[in-house]
Predict the structure.
Amino acid sequence: MGVSEGPSGAADGAGADGGAPASGRAAAENAAAENAPAEQVAAEQVAAEQVAAGHTTAGHSAGGDERGPDDRPAGELIAAALADTDPDGPRRWQAITTLQGRGDLETFMVARRLCASDAAAERILGADILGELGRDRPFADRTLPVLRYLAASEDDPRVLYSVLIAFGHLRDRRALPSVIELAAHEHPTVRYGVAYALPHVLGRPPDPSGLAALRRLAADEDEDVADWASLGLSLSGLTSDRPSRVEATGSAASGEIDDLGGEVLDS
């Protein structure tokens, strides 16, 4: 399995077998709301009213923060990201990076709503934004319940992959149970996401159950999954029964592996 088999941003993948249960669709938003302090809930209500009334300016968030050189409104950036159906497309990731850099309440609210969408492409986008929203991850406590809900309820492998990558970026041990739960998923793309996320959420000292899951993935039948899990064990100061291709050659097999390895090593 190559990364090319990873999640696609195309909306046509969102079918009846690829979505979260309709009866639980609001739970993604409710999960975050239940973890919000009262003053933040009040701020969200004000921000929501401003967004609905069109009172937020292109250059400032609902809270008044500067947004940087790309001053397009959040809705316009979301539309641009969804229009680029290549999951690795430059226009898509330019829009995502701009939104993540804002790290404001309005962007969090928009991403949370995307995670509750009926369209798989929108849920993928929501998870992609939330994984690295804000330099200091100011909404991590609100983001984790949303992502954990998706991890438990989602059927689409592409959405689960994005959720797992987001868990890895957040580097929060509280995500570990959700990651372990997906370690035996039937789809290799999901297991690949687990192999990426686990080294980031094992904690210190490493959780024994998480380490056991990572060791099992190092022996996965899918070579890419096994390689990535082996690399994760190596970077955690542990060993597996087989060397990864990265370890065996002493260099990355491709620029893609170089980039992914840099993410794992990034502190």
